[in-house]
From TrEMBL:
Domain Fibronectin type-III span(s) in chain numbering: 99-191
Protein name: Fibronectin type-III domain-containing protein
Keyword Isomerase: no
Lineage: superkingdom: Eukaryota
Organism: Anopheles maculatus
Length: 212
């Protein structure tokens, strides 16, 4: 018997809980056999240490609602008429982290903006990544910036005044990048023409002596 683990990306991107599929090729589905799935941390579905009849498994066990950005340890045991709690498979994996929260963009001038964000609402993180895409120039602008874990602000410079951009923020943890990203569209300030100077016309003194 061998077991294969594969990641499952949920169809609804707002659901950031980790989903995995544990494939069990060749499962015979015998009436007197069952599997016991245990894992740590014990947060997910089915519940940790759950027992599942072999006939109900088919070829896979689906694990869902795990914590994002978390290192999990899994153990799968098999029991039948001749084996009891036989450890058939074990693995340690890191789930993908959630994207950053509270992403905001503050235009500072025609060329510079400040981007702020917060860590993910749950799970771990080690660093972040920002993508700056130009919407006004058909994505000719395409910058990727790596951000250290203790920084939650970044200034983007040398943008085009009055242009529209999109920033995409990703989280990284233990070599995994968030499947989803947080994004905001923003427009830089336009340059204004310099205000016309008020020209004060000095009126001559009516009592002044005329020139000869």
């Amino acid at each position: 018997m061998f077991v294969v683990l594969k990641s499952f990306v949920p169809l609804v991107p707002q659901c950031y809980g980790a989903d995995l599929v544990i494939e069990i090729p060749g499962n015979q589905g015998l009436d007197d056999s069952f599997y016991r799935l245990d894992y740590y941390p014990p947060i997910g579905n089915p519940a940790a240490n759950a027992t599942i009849a072999s006939r109900d498994v088919g070829d896979e066990i689906q694990f869902s609602n795990g914590l994002p950005g978390t290192r999990y340890n899994f153990w799968l045991y098999y029991t039948n008429s001749t084996h009891k709690d036989w450890l058939t498979w074990t693995v340690s994996i890191t789930t993908a982290p959630d994207p950053p929260a509270n992403l905001t963009v503050i235009p500072r001038s025609g060329k510079n903006v400040i981007i702020n964000w917060s860590p993910p609402l749950q799970g771990n993180y080690s660093s972040f990544k920002l993508k700056i895409l130009g919407l006004s120039d058909n994505f000719a602008t395409n910058q990727t910036v790596a951000i250290e874990d203790n920084q939650f602000q970044y200034m983007v410079r040398d943008l085009t005044p009055g242009a529209t951009y999109q920033v995409q923020a990703y989280t990284l943890y233990d070599g995994k990048e968030s499947v989803a990203y947080t994004s905001r569209n923003f427009t830089t300030k336009r340059y204004r023409h310099k205000d016309l100077l008020d020209i004060k016309i000095l009126r001559g003194n009516s009592n002044a002596l005329p020139l000869s």
